[in-house]
Amino acid sequence: MSEQGGLGSIGVGATDAAGARGMIEETRARTNNAFNVNVFVHGRAIADPITEAAWLDWLAPVFTEFEAEPPTALQTIYKSFADDPDMLAMLLALAPPVVSFHFGLPSSDIITLLRDRGIVLMATATSLDEARAIESAGIDAVVAQGIEAGGHRGAFDPVAPDDALGTVALTRLLVLKTKLPVIAAGGIMDGAGIAAVLDLGAVAAQLGTAFIACLESAADEGYRAALRGPGAYHTSLTSLISGRPARALANRFTGLAAAIGNCQPPDYPIAYNAGKALHAAAKAKGEYGFGAHWAGQGAPLVREMSAADLVQVLRTELQNCRSAD
């Protein structure tokens, strides 16, 4: 991505400071161009042994189907950037060109430290209120994440009412109601989509799902097969996999929502501990339908090629749209 003039992004929310350091150093060895490091700034997980035990009991029959036992207890497997001084120290030492925040914002002190190292800062907003908080915090740019977007919804408070604004409405709202450069995200899969959000006033578009099928993607064959299948036409927001709303391809895991009743998943990322264990058990038996197959509503428009080729195709499509105008 970066070598072709885009802003490649690496997500380090699921690793520790040492793992993130390795990813950043490997990226720097491959490109002299700018890239983004994305961190998760979620609230501290609240352990609830009763809820967690009930969740494991509810999932137990599915584990049994694959001749496996659910975990005896669940752990908080990911640390929030807000509570991770080692991750902060590593970012300050390596000073990647761009750092972006998802799920919220770190403290003003952390933001100041990162800015003082010359790091460009971005943050995800799903509403105008979140965007205004991002603007007040001194962040350089806002990512307008529409409801169409794949993966975890970036809402600051996952239990607060969600207006579920689409990419078009949210992008235009933030362009007109804030002074921040706006990067549109959600359901954008081709050059025509990029042209559309640029016409709305965005300075750039962020694409994720469009690159899942690329040759360099770490998506396994089960994920790729699901992306090519009928589930791509029926993505849904679900909290079952991780404990926090995220848009995924329709699969056996998302299908469990029909039978959930009054049972509720534990807090994020505690629920993810169970979700990952279930996926591993099913995958060992050749069933890929319990993977975290994150994808946006534009999933059926995915194309299989190298990331470099896709960037070139997107650029050509965008230029063609501009020429048509």
Automatic annotation (TrEMBL):
CDD domains: NPD_like. It comes from the Bacteria. GO terms for biological process: response to toxic substance. Gene3D superfamilies: Aldolase class I. Its cofactor is FMN. It catalyses: 3 propionate 3-nitronate + 3 O2 + H2O = 3 3-oxopropanoate + 2 nitrate + nitrite + H2O2 + 3 H(+). Keywords: Detoxification, Flavoprotein, FMN, Monooxygenase, Oxidoreductase. One of its GO terms (molecular function) is nitronate monooxygenase activity. Belongs to the nitronate monooxygenase family. NMO class I subfamily. This is Propionate 3-nitronate monooxygenase. It comes from Polymorphobacter multimanifer. The lineage of its organism: Bacteria, Pseudomonadati, Pseudomonadota, Alphaproteobacteria, Sphingomonadales.
